[in-house]
Structures are given as C-alpha cells and as structure tokens.
C-alpha cells in the first residue's frame, strides 16, 4: 500500500506515519478475548452528530478493551481533535487523523495498557485472520439513502451496488460466518447491527474503500515479536560470547549484557 489511499483515482486519505501497515505475514494477531460488543449513538450529542469516525474508533477500542466510553470522555476526544487535529463539527476529518486522535487520547490515559493500530486491506489474509480471531475492524464506504433502506429492510445488505453520496464509517466483525456491520446509531435505527456479505463486490464497485483499521495491545504485539525472533541457536551464541552471566544462569543480567541483548533483537538476531 502507498502512503495514501485512492478511491476511483481520487485522493481520499493519507496514511499516517503513526500507523503500521501489515507488511509481513509474520506479524502476530492475538485472539481477542472480549466477545461482547459495545454500542454508541453519534446523534446523542450535537457536537458529534457528524463524528462517525470518532465513534467507530471508540467502538473498536471498546470491543478490544472491555471499556465503555462516557459521553464526557467522548467530548474530551472531540476537544483534542479540535485543538490538535484541525477538526470541526461542520467538516470531516481524515480516516487516519481520527485514528491518531483516539489512540493518542487512550494511550495518554492508559500508559500501562497502550494500543497500537494497523492499517490493512479489505479481503487480505490479515483482514480475515483478525475477524476470525474475534476482532472488530473499522471500515468505511460511500453510503446513500438506498444503502440505508436496504440495511433496514431485513437487517441484511442484498444489493451489490449503490449510489455514492457521502462517506460513512462503521465497525465490522464476524459472527456465524457472516460479516456484520455495527453502525453508530444505537436506538435510532431499527437495525444498528446488520449483515453485509457483499463487501467484496461493493469494494470492487467503489462503494467500500479498500482499507480497514485494527487495534491491538502494544504490550502483546511487542512481546510476541520478541519471542518470535528468539531461538535456541542464538541463546547458545549468547553463552559462547559471554553475553550471559558466566556459568550461573540465575544471576541477574547486568547493564552490558542488556545492551548486547537489545542490539541483537534490534538487528533481528543476525549474528554471524
């Protein structure tokens, strides 16, 4: 993926330097242990009536962390968006910038439980892996009155193409082998949660955009990557080179040994 996203040859969003792209199949997605879903309504507060991009971020974070955002906290995020990200209620803000904003707010409030975000392509291998492991993803599309009516008629998208009037952002998850959309209008829509198994076709017809966002716990990600890069062979090389504490494996590691260990990890264990 390039550092921007095109939609029918129109530039529609930049990829933030603060995001990670799924560049390798070796990146580990741990299973989400939270099977509950959390519901929000962007229409409840006048300052958030157009902030669908805020609410899907909050929803995906809730689905991962078990945390329910209060109305006051949501307005704190709105304040941050207005102060630091150039957002106003009368105008939209880019996909990546809202993700930056919500993640920044969360990580400042939760320094011991920080999150990391990944941008991935719809219908990619990692897209399905994340859904199969119970994660919610953020997706966006060009919606219309026809799309709304189709989703509300029998809580399932049946059509394979729609008019493309305005942007909207929602949550996507998998349930009983169906792809499900959670919208941001709890109690306002008849079906705020509906089936959409037409996303592949709708993406090819320029209704759905290509990208999605995944949130993971930063601690899980880092620890899993470090373990992935460890090997018995390199542990023996540590011993041979006296990177470990002599002949006593229970001795605390000293500062020199720690720096040697970090150097090897950063070099991806390319010991000669």
Overview of the structural elements:
- The protein is α+β, with helices and mostly antiparallel strands.
- It has two domains: 4-217, Alpha-Beta Complex (Cathepsin B, Chain A), CATH 3.90.70; 229-266, no CATH class.
- 36% of the residues lie in helices and 19% in strands.
- The chain has nine helices and nine strands.
- Strands 3-4-9-5-6-7-8 form a seven-stranded mixed β-sheet, sandwiched between helices. A two-stranded antiparallel sheet has the order 1-2.
- Strand 1 and strand 2 (10-14) form a beta hairpin.
- The chain starts with a strand and ends in a 6-residue tail after the last helix.
- Residues 1-13 have low confidence and may be disordered.
Number of domains: 2
Q: List unreliable stretches of 5+ residues.
A: 1-13
Number of strands: 9
- Order of strands, widest sheet: 3-4-9-5-6-7-8
Structural class: alpha+beta
Radius of gyration: 22 Å
Q: What is the fold named in CATH at topology level of the largest domain?
A: Cathepsin B, Chain A
Basic shape: globular
Order of helices and strands: EEEHHHEHEHEEEHEHHH
Beginning-to-end CA distance, first to last residue? 33 Å
Largest sheet: 7 strands, mixed
Beta fraction = 15-25%
CATH class of the largest domain: Alpha Beta
| Fraction in helix | 25-40%
Give the second-level CATH assignment, the architecture of the largest domain.
Alpha-Beta Complex
**Overall pLDDT:** 80
Number of helices: 9
């Amino acid at each position: 993926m390039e550092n921007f996203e095109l939609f029918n040859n129109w530039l529609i969003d930049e990829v933030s330097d603060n995001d990670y792209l799924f560049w390798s199949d070796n990146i580990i997605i741990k299973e989400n242990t939270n099977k509950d879903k959390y519901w929000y309504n962007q229409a409840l507060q006048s300052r958030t009536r157009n902030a669908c991009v805020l609410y899907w971020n909050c929803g995906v974070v809730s689905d991962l962390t078990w945390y329910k955002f209060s109305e006051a906290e949501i307005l704190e995020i709105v304040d941050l968006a207005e102060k630091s990200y150039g957002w106003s209620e009368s105008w939209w803000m880019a996909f990546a910038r809202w993700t930056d904003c919500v993640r920044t707010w969360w990580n400042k409030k939760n320094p011991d439980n920080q999150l990391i975000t990944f941008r991935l392509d719809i219908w990619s291998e990692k897209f399905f892996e994340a859904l199969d492991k119970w994660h919610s993803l953020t997706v966006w599309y060009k919606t219309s009155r026809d799309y709304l009516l189709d989703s509300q008629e029998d809580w399932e998208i049946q059509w394979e193409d729609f008019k493309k009037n305005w942007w909207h952002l929602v949550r996507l998850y998998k349930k009983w082998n169906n792809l499900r959309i959670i919208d941001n209008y709890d109690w306002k829509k008849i079906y705020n949660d509906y089936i959409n198994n037409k996303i592949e076709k709708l993406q090819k017809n320029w209704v759905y955009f290509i990208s999605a966002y995944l949130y993971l716990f930063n601690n899980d990600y880092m620890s899993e990557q470090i373990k992935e890069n460890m090997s018995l062979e390199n542990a023996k090389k540590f011993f041979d080179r006296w990177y470990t504490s002599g002949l006593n494996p229970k001795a605390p590691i000293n500062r020199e040994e720690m720096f040697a260990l970090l150097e090897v990890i950063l070099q991806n264990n390319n010991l000669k």
